[in-house]
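FW: tagging you since you asked about this chain on Friday. Here's the raw sequence from the shared folder, copied in full. Didn't touch anything.
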Amino acid sequence: MSTPLSLYKRRITIGFVLYTLAVFGANWMANNIEIPRLALVALALVPMIPALLVVRAILSFAKSWDEFQRKLAFEALLISVLVVGCGSFAWGFIEGIPDMPRLPAIWIMPALFGVYALARIFVSGRYR
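HL: got it, structure written out here
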């Protein structure tokens, strides 16, 4: 029988590999094949299918955590949401200034994950 960690690693690896293939495949198709606009929208969303597999893997793994691990994850998640949320909110005001660069929304999710990872290290360090 697989441990929750080994099952998580397998599922998340499969999800990320499929995500990578979907991103490259969808971009290649969009750039090399004549596709109607509505089909391009659907094609652009194809990478969300493996992304949702990754979400499912994370949620399944989180169910195996004990109370302390959940506390650490919650604190780190709260920090991530507040930092990225306030940062993107502030940038929204800056975008109102003429000739200021726009922040593509596609970077919000990676920013959440990155800040979460850093916050998790910080939060975990307080309990060592």
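FW: The chain has a mean pLDDT of 95.
HL: agreed, and The chain is about 80% helix and 0% strand.
FW: great, closing this out.
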